[in-house]
Amino acid sequence: MTALTQNRAWTLASRPERQVSVADFAMTTSPFAASALAPGEILVRNRLFAVAPTIRNGLNPPGRAYRGSIAIGGTITGMAGVDVLDSRHPDFRTGDRLVALSRWEDLSVLAPDRAPVPVFPVPPSMSFEEALGPLSPNSLTAYFGLIEVGRPRPGETVVVSAAAGSVGSVACQVARILGCRVVAVAGGPAKCAWLKDACRVHEAIDYKSVDVAARLAALCPTGVNVYFDNVGGEILQAVLDNIAPRGRVVLCGQISAYDSGGAAAGPRDMMRLIYGRVRMEGFVVGDFVDRVAPAREQIRRWIAQGDIVLRTDLRRGFECLPQAFTDLFAGANTGTLLVEA
């Protein structure tokens, strides 16, 4: 079944009140002895970890963790590429490869039917790096969020925040492919240059150096039709100050609040939304799990044609997971951040 007799795990050593640090994590090693699985469970070997901002939510105390708070001493949870080593689930067999919500450890016992995020099969023709990179749940999030929730029309103006990230960069490029004018918001001149040169967005705003609301007013004189929101906070407010009548806001993430120690704040003036007939809608990629295969094929075609470019920041070594996670919030990654065990 598995030759591993020890199971390394990264656990929560202390609960970050604001900015997360490497000191908030501790690595443990414990004996592993394969025990009988319960019906519906699978034993997996975690091979490749996706380091994503949403992991931060699980580090919050109960009441502020929307998918469950990790206890002090508990193992960190996140998406991973896994090999199935043993199964008592009728849909999965030994040797299957999956992208699943797992844990930062070598070996995990999972119950797919009880998981808050659906399991994504990885076909034999696809590597884990591809399944967690260009064809990952992040890319699918951008695809479904923009097309199904935002519903942009050719000629409309689409604004994307955290636009250089793994979700944002795909959302920008899908919007461009659909014939929209794309304004990307990112942090730093290097990211903005990459978005303009490689992703071919029409305009890029460096939120670290300019007034975003004023710049949006100058670049979008008729207003923003669709906003793909990964950030929330003041950038969300800046877009709403410049939203077009019947604008749509795709609520994907609230990065600005993850390290704030408080709840994600909403708009300051709800009457603007009422009289502007503005729609704000949240979603999760699991809403579209039954349509993953054709979406992956479409994204793959766009990549092959050169219509979508992506960057992957692949790091090797189980021991570097906490540093990679803190780098994510410091903006020290370039593209989708993955850690190979």
Structural commentary:
This protein is α/β, with parallel strands linked by helices and 341 residues long. The protein has 2 domains: 6-133 and 311-340, Quinone Oxidoreductase, Chain A, domain 1 (Alpha-Beta Complex); 137-285, 3-Layer(aba) Sandwich (Rossmann fold), CATH 3.40.50. The chain is built from 10 helices and 15 strands. The protein has helices spanning 128-132, 137-150, 166-177, 189-197, 212-219, 233-240, 255-258, 270-276, 292-304, 321-330, and strands at residues 6-12, 25-31, 42-50, 77-87, 97-103, 107-110, 120-121, 157-160, 181-186, 203-206, 224-229, 243-251, 279-282, 312-316, 336-340. The strands form 3 sheets. Strands 3, 4, 5, 6, 7, 14 and 15 form a 7-stranded mixed sheet that branches. Strands 10-9-8-11-12-13 form a 6-stranded parallel sheet, with helices on both faces. A two-stranded antiparallel ribbon has the order 1-2. The longest helix is centred in the middle third of the chain and has 14 residues, at 137-150. The model has no long low-confidence stretch (mean pLDDT 93).
